[in-house]
Design brief:
alpha+beta; Thiol Ester Dehydrase, Chain A; seven-stranded antiparallel β-sheet
Length: about 140
Amino acid sequence: MSDGGPPDYVPFQETGGYIGLSGPYYWKREPSGLVVYGFQSDARHGNPNGVLHGAAITTFVDTFLGHAVVAATGRLCATIALNSQFVAGVPTGGWISGRANVRKLTRTMAFLDAEVSAQETLLLTATAIFRVFEDRSTANKPGD
């Protein structure tokens, strides 16, 4: 791809704000229908030891889980809870991939699981709950 992403991956439409500082992030749909997310880590994603910072991984997982909710519902959402378990660390500079599993959807809630890896190394597992808004007009009302 000309924008720096790997072949078959599509860049996220969201490129501003914190997502823009952290990414760019990408996604692709595999022949099985499973969506895989990814980003190329670099020095800005590292901690002082040259290892991928936990916050970089957590930002990525939170972002792609929201993408998965929007893809499943067609509606905007917000994170209510994100519980993560760091399993391993890796040096910066590699391709980081993630997968989401939508376990349950209700009218206003989404429950998901996720994994983040670097090559064959599992880095993080997570569970999350997202608030799903009724429609775009209610997404930014006070009190939501």
